[in-house]
Design a protein that fits this description.
With about 160 residues, the protein is of the alpha+beta class. The protein contains one helix and three strands. The protein has one helix spanning about 25-60; strands at about 80-100, 105-120, 145-150.
Length: about 160
């Protein structure tokens, strides 16, 4: 239970609360969430930096690297981020208007395309190959954090 007060002296007597109020846990829980969010932002930034390094390699050598050396550290695992060049899976969303219900319906489907991707394993530390989907085949939600660059291989 939380109380909207500026100090402890303003805490109202509350007959439903037995024992001490959970002040400490109410203060710590937002900090834990903020820590995960900060790590997620850090992972996204590092993944983008690694994609920039891959682009610099392409400009220098005329081709994308098969492996990228010196990948930044994954803030969730303290291991290097993951890198892949080749066919990458991504979610394609299509919005269609349903005349009967008079509303938009958004459908998602997985597609593959040539690309370069760098990803973090995310808070669950399970490698989902960079995917972020509402639900995996095993029922859990994937939470990898990735930067993906889809490639148009027809361009010189």
């Amino acid at each position: 239970r939380s109380f909207q007060v500026s100090g402890f002296s303003e805490m109202p007597p509350h007959p439903e609360v037995h024992g001490r109020p959970l002040i400490l846990s109410n203060m710590l829980l937002p900090a834990l969430t903020a820590g995960k969010r900060f790590s997620a932002v850090t992972a996204r930034l590092r993944a983008m930096q690694a994609l920039i390094a891959a682009e610099q390699y392409r400009r220098q050598y005329g081709k994308w690297p098969e492996q990228l050396e010196n990948l930044p550290e994954d803030p969730f695992t303290s291991e290097p981020l993951r890198y892949h060049y080749g066919e990458c899976v991504y979610t394609h969303k299509v919005a269609t208007w349903d005349e009967e219900s008079r509303s938009w319906r958004v459908e998602s489907e997985l597609r593959t395309a040539p690309g370069v991707q760098v990803w973090s394993l995310g808070p669950d530390k399970i490698d989902d190959r960079g995917l972020q989907r509402a639900e995996q085949e095993d029922g859990r939600r994937s939470d990898d954090i990735r930067a993906l660059l889809r490639l148009n291989l027809q361009q010189p």
